[in-house]
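To: structure desk
From: M.T.
Subject: fold request, one chain
Message: Could you run this one when you get a chance? Sequence is below, nothing fancy, just the single chain.
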Amino acid sequence: MCYNSWVLSIVLAATSALVWGTGDFSGGRASRRADALAVTVVSQLAGLPVLAICLLFVGGAPSVGALAWGAVAGVAGFVGIVLLYRGLAQGAMALFAPVTAVTAAVVPLVVGLFVERVPSPLALAGAVCAVAAIGLVSLSGGHTRVNPRLVLLALASGAMFGIFFTLLGRAGGVEAGLWPVIGVRAGSIAAGLIIAARLRTSLRVTGPALRWTLVAGPLDILANVLYALAAARGALSVVAPISALYPVSTVLLALTVDRERLRPVQFAGLGLAATALVLVVT
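Reply: Done. Structure tokens follow.
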């Protein structure tokens, strides 16, 4: 793998984290005013035009394998989102967010080390720093009682996101283009519609919630596209942890938009995230 391709994969992964975190912030704002399941399904439908535009520019060779792996990844990602919102609805952000985010980064890191060539020591150190940074920037104030059931729910959510990162990263190389992402969206939308039908949940989203939802959807699909392009060019054990730095942008947006205050440990996490990016491109 040439150095330029390696650096490009890291830039794409870091950008996907920035976009994902912004989309999560928007989806969270929407979910304060509407049902989380409805917000998730509608936002994913809203992202389809963006996916179509990206497909025109990136293209790729369609294959049954790429679509199938992408569809399974999409189902895993959707389940992860449902579990995430269920945990956050219990008012345990301080506990739930760090466990979920770190687990999501660790799963593809471990898988990548087993199925790919081990990256350089500096790159691997950067990936480990990224995992640590995720935990630090996700920590919030308050006191949360440790509930074993909630911890298991957070681990399950993070594992689903980790499986999503892993499957999408393995869905196809550069030649597959964005077809794995098409599979992702098909799988996630199908899963969402089935779950909504079984639970008889209305997908109606209106007012400010709809506006935030229409922001979250395109950003989510754009982040999927960026991650797929990064994973096709770089090592999964490094690209996935960098992409999983999405809590960084969510925290920064909470700081600037919601006027939240950062704790010293979160500032340390932001610094560690910057260190991780420097290490992986060295």
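Reply (cont.): The mean pLDDT is 80. Let me know if you need anything else for the meeting.
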